[in-house]
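TASK: fixed-backbone design
INPUT:
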């Protein structure tokens, strides 16, 4: 009996061991509960909250049928680096600000004759993200007054032209190539249409009278006459008559009122210019003058100002005096205040149109 009982216990123990072994081998690995997709109604519960009732015994949080798939391990690939602003700027300058600098030009004098062997000095501006600065160049015109600048890169080119006995008489001396500028402002080189540059061949200077006066004058409603040879203001004569009108009472930019000024040459003509052009004109125009130059300031005009700045060529005294000058004028804001004038320029009182004494042949223009 004892032997049978021992055999029975042994068989039972072996059977239990086999069952345990089979159970451990076939038991699946525990997987984390998938997270419920978020809904607009409430935040997504954690896995623990999703299977537990709340403290009051409420039902577990409701889970949606859409499950977020388990995360998949990504390959070991580094994320793309974000380009810095400095790198972007450098790349942009290299792409847009480093253009071919090419200029076809021809130099002529006031008689349209070519100016041979004139010296062309140039300054190329460079800012390509790697280099910032200027590059200097120097070439001469050929027997036909022609020249060509090429083989360089940059964003802009500025030139000066010089030759003994001549003065530069043109203002178009800077050319932009950078694509950062609007197309209308960029220079497009064309070998069939060279840029014309004018040089003034000096004939001989004549003495000029400097115009350099400032005036503070009361408003009287009567014409004012300015004498450029003496700097005096009178009731008649001189070179320039000025007629001013204004509305009564105070005027200002906050409270604009109507006013006007009319520039009238004394026995001659007046022609508007600009500052840059007037600096490189060494002989008064022979024609193109008008009898007066009125300026109207209407209080309803958004461009209303209480002052003006103008540049004029003036023929006066029947052609005895030729002047080029700038004028600044400020209307009196209060009726009792003074009007303000400033004149700057030169006058040839020799009955000649010669202004060559204003030519600067010693410095680059």
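OUTPUT:
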């Amino acid at each position: 009996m004892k032997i049978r009982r021992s055999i029975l216990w042994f068989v039972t123990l072996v059977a239990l061991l086999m069952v345990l072994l089979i159970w451990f081998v076939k038991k699946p690995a525990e997987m984390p509960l998938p997270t419920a997709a978020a809904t607009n109604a409430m935040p997504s519960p954690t896995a623990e909250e999703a299977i537990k009732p709340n403290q009051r015994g409420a039902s577990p949080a409701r889970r949606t049928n859409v499950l977020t798939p388990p995360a998949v391990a990504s390959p070991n690939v580094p994320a793309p680096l974000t380009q810095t602003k400095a790198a972007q700027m450098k790349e942009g300058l290299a792409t847009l600000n480093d253009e071919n600098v090419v200029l076809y030009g021809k130099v002529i004098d006031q008689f349209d004759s070519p100016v041979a062997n004139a010296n062309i000095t140039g300054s190329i501006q460079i800012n390509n993200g790697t280099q910032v600065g200027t590059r200097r160049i120097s070439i001469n015109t050929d027997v036909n007054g022609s020249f060509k600048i090429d083989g360089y890169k940059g964003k802009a080119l500025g030139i000066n032209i010089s030759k003994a006995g001549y003065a530069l008489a043109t203002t178009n001396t800077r050319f932009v190539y950078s694509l950062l500028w609007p197309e209308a402002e960029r220079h497009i080189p064309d070998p069939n249409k060279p840029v014309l540059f004018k040089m003034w061949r000096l004939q001989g200077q004549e003495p000029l009278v400097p115009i350099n006066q400032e005036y503070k004058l009361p408003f009287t409603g009567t014409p004012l006459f300015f004498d450029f040879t003496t700097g005096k203001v009178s009731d008649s004569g001189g070179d320039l008559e000025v007629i001013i009108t204004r509305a009564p009472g105070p005027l200002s930019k906050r409270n604009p009122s109507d006013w006007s000024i009319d520039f009238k040459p004394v026995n001659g003509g007046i022609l508007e210019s600009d500052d840059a052009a007037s600096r490189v004109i060494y002989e008064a125009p022979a024609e193109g003058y008008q009898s007066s130059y009125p300026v109207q300031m209407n209080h309803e005009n958004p461009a209303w100002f209480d002052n003006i700045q103008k540049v004029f060529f003036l023929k006066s005294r029947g052609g005895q005096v030729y002047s080029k000058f700038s004028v600044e004028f400020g209307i009196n804001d209060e009726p009792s205040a003074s009007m303000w004038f400033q004149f700057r320029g030169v006058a040839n009182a020799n009955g000649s149109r010669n202004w060559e004494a204003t030519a600067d042949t010693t410095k680059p223009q």
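COMMENT: Residues 209-358 form one domain.
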